[in-house]
Design a protein that fits this description.
Rossmann fold, two-stranded antiparallel sheet, 5 helices, SAM-dependent_MTases_sf, 16S rRNA m(2)G 1207 methyltransferase, transferase, Small_mtfrase_dom
């Protein structure tokens, strides 16, 4: 299989670059690299997720599939009281994420893992995920289940996914695990679902 961003140790040579991100009233410079997702700049799906989520009143959030940390870097400034955890399978991405979130008021926890560790049970108010489509449906659906375990009662999983990448089937899968699933955004083929743990 061709190597892609869902690899623990990218073999492609490092070639770091700086990008400028302007979203949700936050303007920051971030460092990206080859072998990580959306190395050229903020991808459209993640932009829409960042602009849509509501973390009002939250104390903890998990940036699942964090990549180089753009979600936490932005929302950590928009919601400075939230304690963030970043998880990604990609070691290079997590190294970048640690650097890109170093300026936050609360230092995030960063973990290299292909999902959510079992000891993380009922600990988060929110989980945010732009699913790793290229990893396949089995991996993605496992992340939905693991997110349910990791959420507190009443916690919410936010997912952005395009229709062509399986939004309808994702909605059905979420309904199998969560008490309520709401489509909170739908435009230009992009869907954002908010699934609440009952």
């Amino acid at each position: 299989m061709t190597e892609h961003y869902y690899s623990q140790r990218p073999s492609v040579a490092s070639d770091e670059r700086k990008i400028r991100v302007d979203v949700r009233g936050v303007s920051i410079d971030l460092v990206t690299d080859r072998g990580v997702f959306a190395k050229g700049g903020l991808d459209e799906a993640t932009r829409r997720l960042i602009e849509t989520v509501d973390l009002t009143g939250a104390t903890s959030a998990l940036d699942l599939g964090a990549g180089y940390g753009v979600v936490t870097a932005v929302l950590g400034r928009a919601y400075p009281l939230v304690e963030w955890t970043l998880i990604d399978i990609n070691e290079r991405a997590i190294d970048l994420a640690i650097r890109n979130t170093a300026g936050l008021a609360k230092k995030p926890i960063a973990i290299v893992h292909d999902g959510i560790p079992e000891e993380m049970d009922s600990v988060y108010d929110h989980v945010l995920l732009n699913p790793p489509i290229r990893a396949g449906k089995a991996v993605i659906y496992r992340l939905y289940e693991e997110s349910h375990r990791a959420l507190r009662h009443g916690g919410k999983l936010w997912i952005v996914i395009q229709k062509k990448h399986g939004a309808p089937s994702t909605f059905e899968e979420l309904q199998r695990h969560y008490g309520s699933v709401e489509t909170v955004y739908k435009k230009s083929g992009y869907f954002i679902f908010c699934a609440e743990k009952d």
